[in-house]
Structures are given as C-alpha cells and as structure tokens.
Task: structure prediction
Amino acid sequence: MNADNQGPDAGFPKEGRIPVDDFEEYTFRAPRPGFFAGDLPKNPLPCPQFELERIKKKAIQNSNADDSPRSRIFTLPVEILCAIFIQLDICSLLTLARLDFSPPDALHLLQILQDWHVFAKIAAFPKLLAVASALECRHWTIGTIFDVIQDERCVMCGYFGDILDLMTPERRCFRCFIHDDIIRMQSLESISKLQKCSEDSIEQPEEQRSTLLKMLEENIPVIRLIEGNYGGDGDGIARSRHQMFDMIALKTKFPTEFREPEDNWSVRSRLQYATSIRAPFYDMETLSYKEGYFCRACAAQGWTHRSPSSSRTYSMCVDEVHEKAPTWGLPYRRYSREGMKNHVNQYGGVFKIEWSIGEHRNWKMEDKEMRYIHGADFERWVCDEPRTLRLIWPLLVRLRNKQTELPEGATFVSKWYQVRDTNPVFNKEKW
Ligand SMILES: [Zn+2]
Ligand SMILES: [Zn+2]
Result:
C-alpha cells in the first residue's frame, strides 16, 4: 500500500464492509452520449431484415404457381454456398437475396441465410446490417465482420470495445474513441487538394478528379456518409451523402504521394461518429447482445475522494476535472460480463460501506451515504477529462444510484444535456 494513495484520508474504513456478490447490484447500465450512425430517427435507414422477410413472403405466395427453372448455383451443397457467402461483402449478399430468382430458389436462399449461424449473428447485431448497407461498405467481407463482432476487445487497449467503426472495421472502447487524434478519413475534395504535382498534370480538373476517384476506389476502403447529425452533442452535420476515404489505408498504400491532411478537430470528431455504431457484446449467459456494464464501485470515485494532503474533494466530471482522482478502474469504462469478472479479479470483490464525509478533517456532514468500493487498495491516481460525460454527469449519478433505469441500447437525445436534477426525458427507441 502506498502511503500517498491510501491511509486515513483517502482510504475507506476497514470495518463494517458488506460484501456484494450480486452482479446486478454492483453493476449498472448507462448509455453513451453522442450520436452515431443510425442513431436519430429522422434519418431513417433501410431495414434489410424486414426486406428479407418481405422477399420470403412473396416467394411463399408464388411458390405453388411457379414452374420456372431452378438456378444452377442452388444445386450446390449448403456448406459450399456458405463458404462462398462468407467471402462476400454485406451489400453483395443483400443484392443476391434481392435478385429475381424463381420462388423455390428464393425460398431456399433465404432459408440458408436464416439457418446459417454467421448470418444470424450479424443480422441480430443492432443496426449493423442497416448501417453497413446504407454506408455501402464493400471493402470487408461477411467473414471479417463476423470475427470483429465475436471478438469484443478494443483494438487499441484490449478492454471491451463498445464502439464499432465500419470503415476499418474495428472495435474501440469509448476512452480510445474519444482520445483518438488520428485523421481517419477524408472526402475526395480534401484529398485532391493535397495531391502533389497536380499542377504539372496535363489533365483538366474534372479529368483529374475522376482519375483520382477511380484510383482511390480501386485501392482503398470507401464509404458513403449518411446525412444526419453526429458527434458528442449532435452538432456535427453531414448535409449530403458523399464518399469518405480511409486515410490510414491511403497513407499505408501510398506513403509519399499525399500530404498530411490538415487537422480539423470538429470535422474529425463528427466523422468518427458518422461511420461508427454502438457495439454490444454477445452475452453467453443470456444468449443475446448486451451493451455492457459499468462498475458501481469505480463509478462512485471522484466525488467522495479527497487529497491525502488537503480536505478538497475531487471530481472527474465537474469543475475540478483537471485534478487527479484515485482510481481502481476508470469511472466511465464499460465492461462485458467476462471483462467485469476480470475487473473484480484485479481490484477485489465489491463491498458496500457507510461513508461519511464528516468523519474526515474539518468536513462536517451529518448524513451518511451508502457507497460501493473494491476490496483492494487504490493502485494509482489518474487525470482524465471525459468532456462528453461531464455534460451528462447528473444523469450518470442517477443511473449509478439506480434511481433511473434506461432501456437497453437507448440513445441519448439532446435534451439530456440541459437536464440537471430532474427526471431525464429519454428516447424509448431501442437500438
Ligand atoms: Zn480501448
Ligand atoms: Zn470497479
């Protein structure tokens, strides 16, 4: 135990600790602030699941009357067909399902998709089919996205990655997502301005543009942005559907041909949200997708702690945000069920204690509060600034204290940013 981190001032009483073994009690759910692709109802997305059902119904209606010849592809065994499908991208597979096959073939194809565990997992992943087909993601296969949704880890830090970038595709955790300062994508216009030696070209500007477009489309991933509001507070607006190109792939493939793009934080932050969706993990206990859990012990940090050398309290999310707070895990980290088990193994089981600020230094407060702590001592002091969470801190406190519960996968609405201590109005739309 480090005397700077623990002790009579910053530590918790050893007596009167009540162990909490109930997973539902020491965790809570809270949505992420911000608008990701497909989050706002005013930007309706196509619904491939619904469309597939419609195709199936139509095929069933026509199946008796139809005697058109069977397509040769469907004489192949199901295993071979699935081995082909896994190499396709989502758009191509959906296009295949929309083709005008004879009713028996259409039914056969839809039955294969319905029974195929890979497609079933992808179709059940919230918003994935709809957003991937709206963004026109054609550069990764069904097999790749299946691996990404199965592997719940953030590609940058290894914790649960609850945000899925559909350009790459990769999972990232919220912390890595909001602290990411890499420019990941650009529009064609931004790239063409950066192209070196374009003034030496004998091509006209329009020709240069189409040459560049062709070269980019053939070589690096591209998506087509969905119009709408994006970003931490929804003020990033994509006014038109336009192509965005993967700058990481561009730099890797053509390391010397393009200048570094100019940094524009607001555009960058908005675009990250516009190509990402909120990503749950597959919970083997409930056999369904879950958005993840916050730790109540860790989330309580920051407002009842104080410095070992003074009587000041520290908060992660109000005015003293630049101060350091002692920590086990980050207060705003979201865990999968497995990740929470590892977290408890690392920092010790969770205990409930009665905690009074008045017992320390000159602080006088009669009321005691219940709070949750880990069994292990603090490991370190962190300084972090989750700006987007600061805006909704009162709501997070209510969720942490289980005074409010939100539907699984609920999205934030902008009104929440103005809500202080009243009941938040929330969007009941699921996923
Ligand atoms: Zn991470
Ligand atoms: Zn914790």
